[in-house]
Amino acid sequence: MPSCVCILAQATFLLAPSLTRILRDLERRKIIRRRADPSDLRAALISLTARGRSIVDTVGVNSERIYRALEARLGATRMRALMTMLAEAERELREPLAL
Prior knowledge:
2 strands
């Protein structure tokens, strides 16, 4: 069974060693909380703390502002096309690239 770090690394397109360091830092800063998964003690459950949720809410407001500014500049049609292309790229890049 893959570790939670490996699953999360794949989902976030980060290398596992980088993600391990990031998670350790987020936990130290009390942004996330890690605990053993009661159904599989080899795995961990990672959740946002209240502080982490507050940060996400703040960033979300800024992200929405940026999204609206991009849409105003590009227009709704081009913005939809861009979002469609990004979603397609994300689906195609789920598997590692053959180099």
